[in-house]
Structure formats: structure tokens, C-alpha cells
Amino acid sequence: MKSLEIFSGAGGLAKGLELSGFKHAAFVEYNKHACASLSENFDRKKVFFGDIQDFDLTVLDNIDVVAGGPPCQPFSLGGKHRADEDHRDMFPFAINAIEHLMPKAFVFENVKGLLRNSFADYFEYIILRLTFPGFKAGKNDDWRDHLIKLRKISLMPYAGVRYDVKYELINAADYGVPQVRERVIIIGLRSDLNLNWSFPEPTHSQDRLLWDIHVSGEYWEQHRVSAKEKAIVLASTEKMANRIYCRYGLLEPEHLPWKTIRDAVSNLPPPKTKHYLEDHAFRDGARTYAGHTGSEYDWPSKTIKAGDHGVPGGENMIRFPDDSVRYLTILEAKRLQTFPDDFVVKGAWGEAMRQLGNAVPVKLANIIGDHLYTLLSAKTARKVLRR
């Protein structure tokens, strides 16, 4: 099955879908550094460096899935919150790709801020436009006029393609990613396929991590942590652990434990030591202050972010049990975003961290991709059997 990747970034979503079996027909990306990363890890001939408005959709055919992360600054909690008034809102171009290609499905990812109450009408508009991509606005309509008509579409003639659209706020940590990262995932399936999408059930939980830290002790046995470090972590998580005793008694939580930074990077050599890992260089200058404390080593990392004005170091620092801090290396950040170690991210540290901060965790993309590939494959198989 073929996919088109739009707003591809460094390729986290693309890599996850590739691992699920999808074959990429093209990548569309505006940032030159991200394009350089895409060219290193995928077929460079398929990478289009430029504005999506300049990409010729007519050169593609039989695209099964359109996937991507339309730029999220208009909806980001750290942005200017202008939504439809922000020129960086690329959802209209994502919808245009759906209308022209009529894929079997689409997968879009965006920030949690998309669900803010202040954006409710515009988010409804996005979902309805994705549902009825061929229902165009009138010549003099703005999006609000168009929304009113979309709400009444059942009363109007519409013969265009329709999609069954579902969305969900997902925490990547609940799926084995060593990072607390909440993102909105939007999935659409073409209605004529008569397929029912349901989001994969979470596989990991905070409760199980607390259980393994405070009750069973499995976390400490696995990592052979010193008694001193163990005591510090136990003290810092004690309040959260109290409810675990009350809720579960002697029955352990059913999920796997959340993955921690220690789980992800402890087998790497310290970046200051002699090693031969190119993207594991030590970066000096990490400091803490109020609201800028780093990510606890024995907990999933805070959300790795890509800021408009440089990388926010608080989220991109490790805080060790002794309260020392240092910046993540590029390799460590890749692991926290579940990229393969050999995945190449081009650019200096700040640029590489920006790309990684914008990326969909590969593991999460792979889980969603597996679910989608199985669903679409089953439909294809049923058609073959009928013949």
C-alpha cells in the first residue's frame, strides 16, 4: 500500500508507517534540514523540498494513505493561539490533498492545543472539511460561513467522497514511548470501504511503573540501582504511590510499566567519555531555575519540544537523582522519540532537537500503522475472496 507524506518533518510518522508495511510515494517538506534528514533515511528522489502549494498532486496515483503533521504553531499552548488566522495553518492544504487523491485513509497528528475550547468551532470545521473534502466554500464565504453550511450538509445534495473521521488525544507514554507526550491523532477512512476504526488500546501505564518502583521492586532489580539513588526516587514518588496500594492491593496493574529515561538510555556510555557514537556528544551549559528543571531520569521524559525561538532546555535536559543536570544528546533524544539509533538527523544540536521535537514517536506511529494496515489489508482480502 502506498502513502503520501505531507509536512513530513524528519520522518517519525513516515518511519513508523514504513515499519508497518506502507511504501512511500513522496515526501513533502518545507524545511531544508528536515529534507536533508528525509533524504538520508528514505529515497531522496521522492523528497520534495518546497511549499506544499507548489507540489503537483497529479503526478501521484493510487495513493492508499495520506499522512502527516500539519504545522501546529497556530494551536500550540506555547504559540500565539491564532488558529485559522495564522498563515502557518496548513490544514486547508491537507484537506486539498485528500480531495484530489481520495485515499482509502488519512492519518494526521497535531498538538493537544487543537482541542482547546477557544478553537472548538475551528476544530469542528477541520473535522467536517475532512469528512466532506469535496464540499467547497462559496466564492464569498469565510470559514465560519462554510461551517454553517457544513453543519447542514445532510439537507443539501452532496455526491462527493466522504470519510468517517475519528480523533483521540493520546499520550505516547501509554504505548511504550519513554516520554509523556500528548498529541491529537486524527484518522479518516473512506466511507465506501465500510470499515470501522478504533484506536489501539494502551499497553503501558503510570500505575504499573509506580508498582514496579514501590511494590514489586522489579524496576530496581532490572537496572541494579544503588540504594542511595533508589531512596531518592522512592521519596520523590511516594505521594503518587499511595493510591497504588489503595487501588490494587495485592493485584498488580495489568499493563506494562511506562518506560523511563533510564530504560531508554542507561546502556549508552556517558557522553563525556571516549566513545565512537557520532550523535552522542556532550553539550555544556545546562542550568536549572524555576520552571526549568529538566526531566527526571527515572520517569518518562517531559515532552521534547521545538520552540519558535530556540529549543526550550528545560524539556531537553536530564535531571539525575543527585539533582545534576545535562542536556540530552541527539542520540538520547532519538531514543526518547523511539527512532532507530542509525536514523540520521541532519543539522547541529539545536536544529536536530527541533526536528526531533516536531516528530511523531516512531513506536506510536508504528502501532497506529499496524492497526491501519491490518484493517485495510483485511478489506482488500475480502474483495479478492468475493471475486
Strand order of the biggest β-sheet: 3-2-1-4-5-7-6
User: Quick one: biggest sheet?
Assistant: 7 strands, mixed
- The residue ranges in which pLDDT falls below 50 over 5 or more consecutive positions are 74-86
* Total beta-strand segments: 12
> What fold name goes in the CATH topology slot of the largest domain?
Rossmann fold
Q: Which sequence of SSEs, written as H and E, runs from N to C?
A: EHEHEEHEHHEEEHHHHEHEEEHHH
Radius of gyration: 22 Å
Based on secondary structure, the structural category is: alpha/beta
Mean pLDDT, as a whole number? Answer: 90
Query: Kindly, what is the distance between the CA atoms of the first and last residues, rounded to a whole number of angstroms?
Result: 20 Å
**Helix-residue proportion:** 25-40%
